[in-house]
Structure formats: structure tokens, C-alpha cells
Amino acid sequence: MESVMVAAGELSYPVLIGNQALELLDKVLADGGTVPEKILLITDDTVHRLYGKQVKERLEKISPVAMFAVQSGEEAKSFEQYYAILTYALEKGLDRKSMIAALGGGVVGDLAGFAAATFMRGIPFIQIPTTLLAHDSAVGGKTAINHPKGKNMIGAFYQPKAVFFDPQFLESLPAEEMRSGMAEVIKHAMIADASFLSWLQKDLSAVVNPNADQLATMIKEGIKIKAGIVSQDEKETGVRAYLNFGHTLGHAIEAALGYGRITHGDAVAAGMLFASWLSEKELNADLSAGELKDWFKEIGFPVAVPEELSSEELMNFMLSDKKTASGKVNMVLLKEIGTPVIHSYLPERLQDLLEEFRKEEIV
């Protein structure tokens, strides 16, 4: 069993990584002074079929459990589903001595975390991730729902009491969801650890079809990087913005296509290629962007911005993103692998650069 402590402001909590991690739930809650009288288990319909009964029975050893399953997919991060969860919690008699447990990927974690943050002004919650992508989203306390005009536009910073990452829950992931999570693993390596990136690049099979040991290493290293950044900047007033590498364009692609049309990781991969190209053009960075594109293609990531989206349309979505300030769009670029910086662009300039990127074949 691996354990990574996450420090966020005055709070700290453990991320437990390993088989049967959830068996430590009683001790972790007791050590943290959280012994709930009721638990609301929030999941999605796919995870519910696979693991809902198993996890519900485990939680019932602590206190009575009510379960709420949302539809699988990014569409669940809506105001309607959020409202339905709060209504259900009230109907089931949850109160300030209750706890929410999020069983699922990033969508469920974001939605359940926001419900926990706002129900009766905040009740405890835990994360039980079931996707590789959630190694990023389950740590750090960002919770949110989407708005048609932008992703994660309505939310709160609210830390879980603990995160329990059992790799057995990843065994049922389809290939496209595993690849989606791998994009965030690669992002962490690119912004913080050149040796980790080299480890990922030396064996394509480890990225495309990782074994249990490789997967555990990726999860642990990714969480350590995320935890180190969050400990310095819980609410994204400084260095935490580096975690947005690839996300400015990635979020715009997701929103412009319509949530659920492309996986988060595939969109972020396209965003990382643009940010890498931009880093070489603007900062004279040596990132081997052409080799990066070839590697992404081998992994299975789409390596081009969807043709049906115009650069002007994407720019409009980037302007409505949270990373925009004073009419400028903030982009995370790299001076070199492991050295991120923030560059601000006027919309007209960035749109021209995006158009140039789309027309220019990286070699």
C-alpha cells in the first residue's frame, strides 16, 4: 500500500493507493475525526453495475448508506443533476453529521464534491476513484459542474477527507478511458519531471496497456506531483495554474464539440501539442514537438484540432474560460520539460497562432 499526503492550506489528507485500499476506511475516518451517521454514495450507472454493491456493503459497515447513480458521461456535471442530488439527500434525511462518498471518475468526483461542499454549507466527503483520469481530479479539492458556456464554471475548492485508489477498479476501463487518463499522467510529467516523462516514453506498451505495477507507479508519481503543487497553492492564485497545461485549448474543444463528444484526455492531448508548439515558437524551447506528436499518434490520441471547429469559435470558448483575465488568455507554456511558465495573449494574437498551428505540419 502506497500513501501520499496532500497538504492544502491548513488541511491535510491521505491518498491511499493499492489493492483493498478501502479496507483502511474505518481507521482513516476515525483518525480524521469523521464518523458519519449516514452516508450518501454517489456513482454513475456504469460503475454502479460493476462495483456499486461491493462498495455499498463496505460503507454499510460504518453507517447506513443511500445510493444515487447519475448517467455516465460529462453530461452528468449539470445543474439539474446537482439539484437532484441535493433533493435526494434531503429526502433521505442527511444532515451535517452525514458524509458523501464519490465512487467513479472525474465527473462523479467533481459533481459529488460540489454537492458535499454546498449541502448544509459543507459536509465531509471521500473520493473512491475508478478511472486513471481521476488520479488528477480526485486530488486537490477542485469541485464543479459545467455550464453550456464553459467547463467547470460553477464550483468550489473543497478538499476530501481521504482518497482511496484501488487499481482493481481500473480493470474494467475501456481503452479510450485509459488513454484519457494517460493524458493527465503525461501532463504531470511534462510540467514537473523530465525523468518521469522519459520513463513513460521508453516503453509504448506501458502507456498503451500498462500492467499493475506500471499503473501503480503512474498513479503514485502523478499524485505526488499534483500534491506538491497543491501544497504551494490550494486555490490557484499562482503555481497551481501550471496544472492547466494543455487545458486552455482542451476545455474549449470539449465545450465547442458538446460535452461527451470527445474524452477529456483526448482534448487535453491536442491542447498539449498546441502548447508545446507555442513554447517552441515563442520561447525557443526545445521540446521535440514533432516527436511528441508522433508519440501521441502511437498512443492513439487525436493529434489535430477537430476540423469542424473554427479557430474563432474555439477562441470564444477560451475567452469564457476561468483562465482568462483582463481580456487576455493565459496559456501554460514550457521553457523546457519540467519548467512551466504563464504567458498571456490578446485574443486576436492567440487566434492567429492557433490558425497557424492548425495549418502547419509539425516535423
What does this 3D model show about the protein?
This protein is an alpha/beta fold and 363 residues long. Helices cover 46% and strands 20% of the residues. It folds into two domains: 2-170, Rossmann fold (3-Layer(aba) Sandwich), CATH 3.40.50; 175-359, Dehydroquinate synthase-like - alpha domain (Dehydroquinate synthase-like, alpha domain, Up-down Bundle), CATH 1.20.1090.10. The protein has 14 helices and twelve strands. The strands form four sheets. The chain has a four-stranded parallel sheet, sandwiched between helices. α2 links the parallel β3 (38-44) and β4 (65-70). α3 (79-91) packs across α4 and α6 (175-192) packs antiparallel against α7 (194-201). The chain is globular, with a radius of gyration of 20 Å. The relative contact order is 0.11.
The CATH C-level name of the largest domain is: Mainly Alpha
Q: What topology, given as strand order, has the largest sheet? A: 4-3-5-6
> Helicity range of the residues?
40-55%
| DSSP summary, beta strand count | 12
By CATH, the topology of the largest domain is: Dehydroquinate synthase-like, alpha domain
Terminal Cα separation, in Å? 43 Å
Order of helices and strands: EEHEHEHEHEHEEEHHHHHHHHEEEH
CATH architecture grouping of the largest domain: Up-down Bundle
Beta-strand percentage?
A: 15-25%
Taking all Cα atoms into account, the compactness measure Rg is 20 Å
Number of domains: 2
- The fourth-level CATH homologous superfamily of the largest domain is Dehydroquinate synthase-like - alpha domain
**Main beta sheet: strand number and arrangement?**
4 strands, parallel
| Average pLDDT figure | 93
The structural class is alpha/beta
Global shape:
globular
H/I helix tally: 14
Contiguous uncertain segments of 5+ residues? none
Organism: Metabacillus sediminis
Family: Belongs to the sugar phosphate cyclases superfamily. Dehydroquinate synthase family.
Main location: cytoplasm
Cofactor: Co(2+); Zn(2+); NAD(+)
